[in-house]
Amino acid sequence: MTARTIGDQLRASAAAAPEKVAVLAEGRPLAYSELDEAADRLASGLAERGVARGDRVVLALPNGADMCVAVYGVARAGAAFVPVNPTMKAAKLGDVLDRAAPVAVICDEERAPVAAEAAGSQIEPPIVAGVSELSSAGTLPSPPLDSDLAAVMFTSGSTGEPKGVMLAHLNVAFATDSIVEYLELGADDRVLSLLPLSFGYGLSQLFTCVRAGATLVLEAGLGFVGRLVRILEEERITGLPAVPTVFQVLTALKGLADRELPDLRFVTNAGAGLSTPAVDAVRRTFPGARLYSMYGQTECTRVCYLPPDQLDARPASVGVAIPGTEAWVEGPDGTPAAPGETGQLMVRGSHVMQGYWGDPEGTAAKLRPGRWPWERVLATGDLFRTDDEGYLYFVSRTDDIIKSRGEKVAPREVEEVLYGVAGVVEAAVVGVPDRLLGQAVHAHVVLEDGAKTDPESLKRYCAERLEDYMVPQRVVIQEALPRTPNGKLDRRALAVPAALR
Q1: Ranges of H-type helices in 120-243
Q2: 209-256 residue pLDDT tens
Q3: Over 70: is that where the pLDDT of 1 sits?
Q4: Which end of the chain is more exposed for a tag (fewer CB within 10 A), N or C?
């Protein structure tokens, strides 16, 4: 069958191998036929409760079988799922509910009180604790079209206020097909994911595994590292997607590089870039696996990937556009930038979002007129450059650029210098408001145990290798750097002046 929608992709894999395990979570295997049937029952139950095409349903569920069923059941009902971090506090969840105007919130019993507090009286029925409460053997609603809304993914913008990224079935299905293609994902793969399904990178693990007919092994998080190693071995994991914080823990684990993991054929990184030393550490720890360095945005799921055979030649690159799409760097005048010139990354393809929910101004700023009258291309807002062969290199988020002494400083350039110091395992450079400089360059570093260096030595090291205006005014040695719930570096927290922390 032609898999045009998210639900179609599940249906096709269930028909091909009904008894195969689709998801393994908390020790419970869920076969493709079971996932498919459970999604149908949820879709029927939602329709009986009046959920209609285009309605939004918030999902506040932890990693597990219920979350997988909820995603496909809501989508198959023709509604749009709105995944949120299940640990989200009531005030922030209430803000998302205000913006998304959902008809229901699906959570578990543990999170029901917080969801009820966030919802107040705006949702009727306000809360459904568990997908089983909604299941029905009734008639399935008419299936959605690929142009219908599939998801509203809330992501923080430059101001910290959530933006609801609208993705149609076409956007999700196309991105999924493209990722499956370049990862060469197949039915024999077993992917271990520690990433929350409320996070775009985590959700894509579910979609790609289902599309390929593979098995997704779901964990709630990093937890006990020894358990993770056992899962890699005992479950014969072939794929491990992670973010830099997870790789940092794994590569520091003594003896892991000496273990035989004959089944592990690939590891992937997204969410934040790996430094060059981190790339080397990952490859040493998993010598038999191919490493895919990737870059994406919620607004299009994935932009580019670096073919593993290019890692030695260009370890700092995030590669080329994913199959079936185009990505290029645009200069200030709107024309393609020359190799080596920094400009804004632009993206073209069927994976580009439909816009921001309830935000026409934000949509107009992010989606620009394309080649055809009906087409819009994505202005990522991120600064990139290319090399002579067209490979892409991340320079900075536009919002992260530091303006000091009238000059622009790209944090990543300073961070790469700091990574050259023996013992530095993590570095983050931010701009802090300063009366004289506009912004002062501050560096925060994490050292490995036993490292012998200090802030002044690090500043001198930078001064020998960087222009004066790029040298950090202050270096702070930290035990750990602040992270968002999705594991990304929280630069906003670091940029708060020390007196206000």
Answers
A1: 169-183, 200-212, 225-234
A2: 999 999 999 998 777 788 889 999 999 999 999 988 889 889 888 888
A3: no
A4: C
| pLDDT bucket at 488, cuts 50 / 70 / 90 | confident
Query: Roughly how many angstroms between the first and final C-alpha of the chain, as a whole number?
Result: 56
Look at the pTM and tell me if it is higher than 0.85.
Answer: yes
Query: For tokens 């491990």, what's the residue?
Result: 240
pLDDT value for 467 = 85
Q: Kindly list the distances between the CA atom of residue 119 and the CA atoms of 22, 104, 301, 451, in Å, as whole numbers in the listed order.
A: 33, 9, 29, 49
pLDDT at 152 over 60: yes
CA distances, 277 to each of 102, 252, 269, 273, 487 (Å):
44, 13, 14, 12, 19
Q: Find out whether 334 and 389 touch, Cβ atoms under 8 Å.
A: no
| Distance from the Cα of residue 365 to its chain's centroid | 22
> Are 104 and 123 in contact, with CB atoms under 8 Å apart?
yes
Q: Which domains does the chain carry?
A: 40-168 (3.40.50.980), 222-396 (3.40.50.12780), 408-500 (3.30.300.30)
CA distance linking residue 245 with residue 481, whole number of Å: 10
Instruction: Convert the pLDDT of each residue in 98-124 to its tens digit.
Output: 999 999 999 998 888 999 898 886 776
pLDDT-derived band at 387, boundaries 50, 70, 90: very high
Q: Is the peptide bond before 125 cis (omega within 30 degrees of 0)?
A: yes
94 vs 431: CA distance, rounded Å = 31
Gap between the Cα atoms of 366 and 347, Å rounded: 11
Measured CA to CA, the distance from residue 162 to residue 174 in angstroms comes to 25
The average confidence (pLDDT) of the chain is 91
Two structure tokens written together for 141: 């609603």
Q: What is the DSSP letter of 143?
A: P
Rounded distance, CA 455 to CA 448, Å? 15
Cβ contact 430:402 at 8 Å:
yes
- Contact 464/471 with Cβ under 8 angstroms? no
According to DSSP, the β-strands at 149-156 and 162-168 are antiparallel
Strand-pair partners of 241: 268
**Contact (Cβ atoms closer than 8 angstroms) between residue 487 and residue 435:** no
For the record, the structure tokens of 491 come out as 């630069």
Indicate the angle between helix axes 32-48 and 65-76, nearest 10 degrees. Answer: 50
Q: Is the four-CA dihedral 127, 131, 136, 140 of positive or negative sign? A: positive
Residue 125's pLDDT is 60
Q: What DSSP line would sit under 235-278, residue for residue?
A: TT--EEEE-HHHHHHHHTSTTGGGS--TT--EEEE-SSPPPHHH
Q: What is the pLDDT of residues 325-346, one digit of tens each?
A: 999 999 999 999 999 999 999 9
Helix or strand (DSSP H, E) at 156: strand 149-156
- Judged by DSSP in three states, 489 sits in strand
